[in-house]
Amino acid sequence: YHIRSTHQDTFYPLQYDNLNVIESFGRNSRISFPYRRIEKLRNVPPGERRTAGMLTHVYHLFPNVMLSTFPTNRLMTVLEPLAVDRTRLVTYTLSNQIAADDGRAAVAQGRDFVTAGAAEDREMACAAQRGLATRANDHFTFGLFEGAIRHFHQNLAAIIERGASAR
C-alpha cells in the first residue's frame, strides 16, 4: 500500500509492498521490512540462517524517536514538535563500516538511498497533513496495514485523556 506507491524508485525495487511484521512493546513498536533478497535463505538450514542485511527494522520509541536499521548504517531520528503544523526532524547516522574506502563508499551510497526514501515519506506525511488542515473530513481512519501508526495514536490519545481528566 505504501512502499509501491511512495517508493517506486527507492525501496520498492528492493523490498515488498505489503509484507512486514509489526510488533508492539509497551507504548513502542517495531516494524520489520524484509528485502527481496531474504528469499536466498529459503534453502539454507534454519540453524544457519542469518538475517543481517536481509531486513530493515524501524523502532518507534514513544513518543518521538525512531531508530532504523539498514544494511550499512543505523539512523536515529528525533521529531521535535515546534507548533501544531511544524516539526523539526533531527537525524543521526551511525555505521561501523567506514574503516576502509569501500566501506565509506557503501555507507555513503546507503545514506543517499535512505535519504531519498525519507524525503518520499516526508512528502507523503506532509500531503496527509495538508489534507487534514482542510477540515473536509470529520474522521480519519488508518489503513489495515498501519498498525504501528494506530498504536501510536491510541497511546497518545490515552495520555491526552489522562491529562485532561487530571485538570
From TrEMBL:
InterPro entries: Ring_hydroxy_dOase_asu_C_dom. It holds the Pfam family Ring_hydroxyl_A. GO terms for molecular function: 2 iron, 2 sulfur cluster binding; iron ion binding. SUPFAM superfamilies: Bet v1-like. Residues 1-161 form the Aromatic-ring-hydroxylating dioxygenase alpha subunit C-terminal domain. It comes from the Eukaryota. This is Aromatic-ring-hydroxylating dioxygenase alpha subunit C-terminal domain-containing protein.
